[in-house]
Amino acid sequence: MRMKKNCLLACFVLFACFPVLWGQSAVTAKIDQLLSDDLLVTSDVGISVYDLTDSIPIYNYRDKKMARPASTEKLITSITHLSRLGMNCRFTTAVKYTGRIDDGGVLHGDLYVCGGFDPEFMDNDMDELVTDLKRVGLTKVKGKVYGDVSFMDSLYYGAGWCWDDAPYDFQPMLSPLMFHKGYVEVAAMPDVAGKPAKISLMPQSSYYSVDNQTLSSQVENPSFSVNRDWMHNDNRLFLSGNVSAKSNAIITVYGSAEFFMHAFMERVRGQEITMKRFGGFETTPPDAQLLIEKNHTTADVLHRALKESDNLSAEALFYHLGAWQKGKDSCHVSAKDGVVAIKEFIKELGFDSESYEIYDGCGVSLYDYVTPELMLAYLKYAHQRPEIYKEIFDALPVAGIDGTLKGRMRNGKAFGNVRAKTGTVSGISTLAGYLRADNGHELAFVIMNQNVADTKKARTFQDRVCELLCTMK
Question: Please, how many CA atoms are within 13 Å of residue 79, restricted to the half-sphere of its CB?
């Protein structure tokens, strides 16, 4: 009698689960059909999908095959950072001093501007910093003014970064003292036809110069461009092309720390605070006293790293993770320290960390190699920890609505439903994140297209996979 009841129970469970299993198999069969797409004749893809509600795998295709993650690497950096430091990390720029400040606000000693690798320190932050110096009563520095960049080593590009990306805003020179992300925003407006265009710059500084060779015209397709002789580390900005409508461009400057200190000295003098000279870059003495500081939170940095795929923000998370790994009083943190922290975490996830290649925090490096399986493990780990999952989920781009997914999946069930990190470098297109299926189940997914000549086709493939997953009943 007991055997009969067990058989009936097994049949009931099978019958109850059959619609779910049928729904999953129908979706996976459709994904299999997508693999016959012409895109995959000349390229490759790795896919991993997991049902977070039922804790079962849904679909895997070459999920153990090594692939370049591009900017989905930011998920690895962000989740590792949150697991180690939580949301308590502060990205700080501080002003300290040695000696004494008399009743007249004169500093009889030296002033140190200490960089803590704050990628969010923008033009308005510089204004606030120098205004605060005036507010606390500083009127004159009799000694020297130093910049302190001892937080990290002197390597300003990551291993495997392309040297010819130097002028582009996605690859600024890394420094503990970052001002306006190390770049200049240039806007051009047409003037009278035949005359140079009107130019506005942000931030304004004499650290760089401008050669305006633009021409205001009625040409429908403006050809406005900004360049500099980056091969020779020149900060003269050459503006050229026809300008018939408002046009914008962004270009990096050489020497992020120097850019910061130049702007600092320039604006401090504008506040009528006397500072005779910049003494260069030195480590702040341990007995120096804090005068003022500005900081940004992990939420500020994490949001930009994931939502906007900002490489500088991801590297800041990476280097602060490295500082945690090296120790509380760490100095001259290197990329290797960040790598060690990530690989230690990979071990805790149950993987052989030496099977993967990690060289930076943002995924720009040509040397980064992971697998869809590992990326999925990170997504599962985050989902199992509400305090981490909330921060990651909120910071991810939303399909058809914002961030790097604003222009994708603007129709269908994926719209507003898929939250995922994009990744794009030459030949690579990746997507990893979360979505909710029609059956109410939450899924984690990873799609890594490799050796792709047409990024648009790869993105279309990824969007179709996401749409299919959203329809799972």
Answer: 28
